[in-house]
Structures are given as C-alpha cells and as structure tokens.
# Entry
Amino acid sequence: MRDNVKGALSILGISVAPNKSASVLYLDKNLANGDDYGLRGGQIGGGFRLSENVPIFLEGYIGFTNYDPVFLLKGAPGDTSLLSNWTSVSATGGLGWEFKLNKNWKIRPIVNFSIGRVQSDSSIADQVVSEALELELDFLSDGGITAFGYGGSFVAEFNKRWPNDYELDLRFRHTHIRLETLDSDLVGTAEAISSVAWSRVRVPTGFRLFDQSTRWVSELSVSHLPGDQGIVLDTEWLAQLGAGLELDFSRNNSSWLKEFRVLARVAKGDNIEGFSVGVAAKF
# Structure
C-alpha cells in the first residue's frame, strides 16, 4: 500500500517541478520491454523580478499529468495485471531573491511550495476488482490522493544578445520538493528532484512576419532525475532537442509583448521517448 501511495505521489512530482520552458509533453514508456504505457503532461507558468530596484523574484506554475500505470496483483491465483489511469493536477509557487553577478549572469535561491491531487479515473472499476479479489486497493477506490509539497530551487542564468540580434541563453536549475499526503488514511511521501541544464540559441531569419523581425530558435536540455519521478518514468535522465520560430518585438517600443515563440521538441530517456510542443511569450 505504501509503495502504491508513493507511486501516486511520484506521478504528481513530475508536474510540480517548475520548468521555464513549459510545454505539452507526450511520452511512450518502457520501450525496451515492449510495453506501451503513455504519459501525457503539461505545464504553464513563469516568473519575474518585482522591479529593477527590488530583487524579490516570484514564480508560479500549474501542471497536469495523465498516466496509465499497471498494478501487479499478487493476491490473485497467479499474477494479474490491473490497468488504471491516473490524472494529477498541481500548482507550484516560488519566492526567491535575485542576485546579478554581472551584466550576463544572475543567480536565484528560491523557496517552493506545492499543492496537488492525483485522481484515479477508474476508481469504480478498481473497487469492483478489490472486492472480487479481496485485495487492498483503497488508495484507488477512494478516488485519489491530495498532497502538499515544500522545498527549494537554485537557479543560475546566463543571457547575452549581440548587436546583430544573435542571442544565447543558458540555465542551470536544481529543484528538490518533498511531497506528503494530506489524507489521514493514506500516509506516504515522495521526493521530486531534478537537475536541468538548458540552452537556447536564437538566430535572425532575415524575413519579417506581421511587420516584426523573426528569429530561428533551437533548444537543448538534459535533465537528471534522481528522485521518485525518475522511477515512475523508468529513467534517471531525459534529453530534449527542439526547434521553432520566434517573433521579436523587443525593438518595438510601443508593444507590450517582447517575444512570442512556438517550438517543437523530441525527448529521449533510457526506456522512454516522446515529443512536446511549447508556446511562450515574454512581456
């Protein structure tokens, strides 16, 4: 029972870790052994410094994950597999302090807090199986688990833009959020841990769209997942490579929108691969 609760919290952990390059992600899991368990997820959010004179940094993200785990029921005559479908929804906030090291580098220690719920879409069917096989599946038949999380992040960012509008971004972020159940009958914890190295290169295309300059965008990121969400994904690392197009409004002083871009990415891990689509705006 405790392992199953931990597994549910680990699914929640996939969406609670803030990701500035938020997107909608689809992954196929366990390619090596021929199983086909899909994971679909997404996150929207961002962060900002209060002002040039006030270095307080605020961030907020809302995420979801849909996952179809398989439970191996040892109580049946022989092993029986039970398919389920779990959906998690989470909100994560952060309060930090931004230090500008020089013109290009800045660092931020951030305190994070999260709230979320993992819901079983098949709780009624699971209740029937539970009664028929006389097995304890209360964590499913109750319909879901509510949890809260607390922890922190450390972020280092580099940005440099050249006069010819070429631009380079680098970001290194380590996040550690501990998740605990709020349900008195279901006690469990999970650790959402991720270390991400991310880069983005922007190159002018030479043509204009909607009377605005455009830039090609390429991204590369590598994530190390030593926490419990890596166990659920069956990989301790995930690499993503992406490309897209950006509308650059930064030279337009009358526009409240500075950048708008669309990217497509491919993702790869030990026993997992997939793709994602992201839309981002900078104000």
